[in-house]
Amino acid sequence: MKRMLALSLTCALALASLSGCTTPSTAQPLSAQPIPLSQEQLVQYDPEATEVYAALSSFGMELLKNVRQEGTDTLISPLSVSLALAMAANGADHNTLSQFEQVLGGDTSLEAINVACHALLSIYQNLLGGSTQCSIANSVWADPDGQISEEFIGRCAGIFDAQIFQEDLSASGIVPALNGWVSEHTNNMIPQIISQPFQESTAALLVNALYLKNTWAQKFDPNSTHERTFTFENGQTEDMDFLNTGFCTFPYIQGEGVQGAVLPYDDGRLGFFALLPDQDLDSWLSTLEGVDFAALLSQQTDTQFFHLGLPKFEAEWGGDLCDALSQLGLEDAFLPGVADFSRMGDLEEGYYLSQVIHATKIKVNEKGTEAAAATVVAASGSAAPAEEGITLVFDRPFLYGIVDLQNGAPLFIGTFE
């Protein structure tokens, strides 16, 4: 019987403090000999890391466009999805591996993807400055009958600093164990990612959890928050609270058919971007190629804003990413009898991916942003700036996200519509 490889990707950003880490009560931690990247690999493939960051930006935008439904808020974490899939890629071979390299790395090598992921983990795990708190946790949950190889587990532990657990993934105990791990590493923002055990053929779970707490570099005055009318794509309107600021300098973005702003956080590295199309959001997104997204975000000029208005909002999203990932080129990984994960384990029948579940949540307020995301992947065996300043009010559907201002890597991308 083909065995399923279940990957659980979890990503969270939150304003509350991060809780301490404890081992899930029903899961048995396993010791594994980490297989880290060599110094030679770190040096050799570091120049290619910038290509992986650009590919991550393109991948995130294309993934958002594939899962988005017009008129519905959408939110994904490209970083979380990529990190979990990168762990899976370390078990892939031949054409399956080539597709991972193309989708995640823009046709760079697995080694370059590993070096880039290792660098991102190091950057965000050690992010200092301001009030930012950032933590990324990875884990591998191996079913006793999954025959997952020690080498694969060692690579996940060594490259991705993954915790290793052994658990019967088809037994009821996996539900509280995995939900507890996810809840803990998302500061309770995603309290439940699964409601029932996995199929008996599930061989492993690969889990990524990102926690991020950010505060605006320039906070919004709560006394300036007041109601404005937001107009949705279908013409309906709703009065909602808007964050407002005036006579301030923010990075301004202007591209073909769109303008926006970047609101830096006080850590000096990450920022929240919001892009407002000149026309409707759907038409603009249909013309935006993933490869152009990073270039658009890089077109920033510090500009005086006369007035900036942004909704104070909460949004959440959840769905399965299998079809979207397949459409982006990760095809073989989901096909029994075609997928090649021979570097992952010893089952003669092999493994394939069967499910990718992603759940997200975000809050935007006067202090900063609070967001969380969780993903489970299961696998089987416009106008020029005016001199007096810009007035920019996001009172109709727009694109937003959280991005690394130094390398362009998107941690979250979403639409508010």
Task: Supply the key terms.
417 residues, alpha+beta, Antithrombin, Chain I, domain 2, 9-stranded mixed β-sheet, 10 helices, 35% strand, globular
SSE arrangement:
Blueprint: E1 3-13, E2 28-29, H1 39-45, H2 49-67, E3 74-76, H3 78-89, H4 94-105, H5 110-125, E4 133-142, H6 150-160, E5 162-166, H7 174-185, E6 202-215, E7 226-231, E8 237-245, E9 248-255, E10 258-264, E11 270-277, H8 281-287, H9 290-298, E12 300-311, E13 313-320, H10 322-327, E14 351-353, E15 355-364, E16 368-378, E17 390-393, E18 398-404, E19 410-416
Parallel strand pairs: 1-6, 1-14, 4-5, 12-17
Antiparallel strand pairs: 1-16, 2-5, 3-19, 4-6, 6-16, 7-8, 8-12, 9-10, 9-12, 10-11, 11-18, 13-15, 15-16, 18-19
Helix pairs in contact: 2-5, 2-9, 3-4
General description of the model:
This protein has about 425 residues and is of the alpha+beta class. It folds into 2 domains: about 5-215 and about 315-380, Antithrombin, Chain I, domain 2, CATH 3.30.497; about 220-310 and about 385-415, Alpha-1-antitrypsin, domain 1 (Roll), CATH 2.30.39.10. The protein is built from 10 helices and 19 strands. The chain has helices spanning about 40-45, 50-65, 80-90, 95-105, 110-125, 150-160, 175-185, 280-285, 290-300, 320-325, and strands at about 5-15, 30, 75, 135-140, 160-165, 200-215, 225-230, 235-245, 250-255, 260-265, 270-275, 300-310, 315-320, 350-355, 355-365, 370-380, 390-395, 400-405, 410-415. Strands 3, 7, 8, 9, 10, 11, 12, 17, 18 and 19 form a 10-stranded mixed β-sheet that branches. Strand 9 (about 250-255) and strand 10 (about 260-265) form a beta hairpin. Helix 2 (about 50-65) crosses helix 5, helix 2 packs across helix 9 and helix 3 (about 80-90) runs antiparallel to helix 4 (about 95-105). It is globular and about 70 Å long. Mean pLDDT is about 85; it is low at about 10-25 and about 380-385.
